[in-house]
Automatic annotation (TrEMBL):
SUPFAM superfamilies the UniProt entry points to: Homeodomain-like
Similarity-based family: Belongs to the IS150/IS1296 orfA family.
Coiled coil ranges: 163-196
Organism: Veillonella dispar ATCC 17748
Domain Insertion element IS150 protein InsJ-like helix-turn-helix: 85-129
UniProt entry keywords in alphabetical sequence: Coiled coil
Protein name per UniProt: Transposase
Membrane-spanning intervals of the chain: none
Pfam families reported for this sequence: HTH_28
InterPro entries: Homeodomain-like_sf, InsJ-like_HTH, IS150/IS1296_orfA-like
C-alpha cells in the first residue's frame, strides 16, 4: 500500500495519495490500526491526515476522498462565508472538512482575505480577454451591484444568522432535557411519598 505519487518541493516532500490508499487507511483506522507511515512525513501528521479522511467520509460519503472539491466552482460569496467562520473562531480544519475542501485551500483563502480583502477572493477570469465588439447593444436597466463592503456585511450577517439558529437548536435540546429530568424527579418523589403513605397505613 503506497501513495500514488509524491513530488519534492522547497518544504520537503509533498504527498498525493491514491483513493485506494485512503480507503485502506480508513479501513485500518476503524479496526484500531494504522498503516505504515510513508517516508518524508511525520507519524503525527500522517495520523492526523487519516483522521481527516475519516471525518470527510462521515460528512460527505466515501467518494469525497476521490476528488475533494477540486472541480467545484466556489463563488467569492461562498469563499467569504467559509473565511468568516474561521475568523469567528471555528477551527480551520473543521470548517474545511464540513465544506469538503482541502484545509490548505481554505488557508489560502483566509490569507488572501487578510492581505487583499474581499477582492482577494474574486476568481480571476481564465483564457484570453474577449475582443472589442463594435455591434450596438441595446441598453438595459440592471439592478445596482452591491459594493464590496455591502457584500461582506451581507454574508457576515448570513453566517451570524446560521450560527444563532444552531445555538437556538442546542438551547432547545438542553431545555427539553432539563424538563425531562425534572419530570422524572417529580415522578420519583411522588412515588416515594405514596410508598411512605402506604407504609404508615399498614402500621
Amino acid at each position: 500500500m503506497y501513495p500514488l505519487y509524491w513530488t519534492t518541493s522547497k518544504g520537503g516532500i509533498f504527498m498525493r495519495y491514491s483513493y485506494q490508499f485512503k480507503r485502506k487507511a480508513i479501513e485500518l483506522f476503524y479496526r484500531g490500526e494504522w498503516p505504515k507511515t510513508p517516508n518524508g512525513v511525520t507519524t503525527d501528521t500522517f495520523h492526523r491526515l487519516i483522521r481527516d479522511w475519516v471525518k470527510l467520509e462521515q460528512h460527505h460519503g466515501p467518494d469525497i476522498n476521490k476528488n475533494r472539491g477540486t472541480n467545484k466552482y466556489w463563488t467569492p460569496e461562498e469563499k467569504y462565508s467559509l473565511v468568516c467562520q474561521v475568523l469567528s473562531g471555528q477551527g480551520l480544519r473543521t470548517v474545511a472538512i464540513v465544506a469538503g475542501i482541502n484545509s490548505g485551500q481554505l488557508y489560502q483563502w483566509v490569507h488572501k482575505y487578510k492581505t487583499l480583502g474581499y477582492n482577494g477572493l474574486i476568481n480571476k477570469p481564465k483564457g484570453r480577454p474577449p475582443k472589442d465588439c463594435k455591434m450596438k447593444v441595446p441598453k438595459t436597466i440592471s439592478p445596482r451591484k452591491l459594493k464590496e463592503s455591502e457584500y461582506e456585511e451581507l454574508i457576515r450577517l448570513r453566517a451570524e444568522i446560521a450560527y444563532i439558529k444552531a445555538e437556538n437548536e442546542v438551547i432547545k435540546k438542553e431545555i427539553a432535557l432539563r424538563e425531562e429530568k425534572e419530570a422524572a424527579r417529580l415522578k420519583a418523589k411522588k412515588q416515594r411519598l405514596l410508598k411512605r403513605s402506604a407504609n404508615k397505613a399498614i402500621n
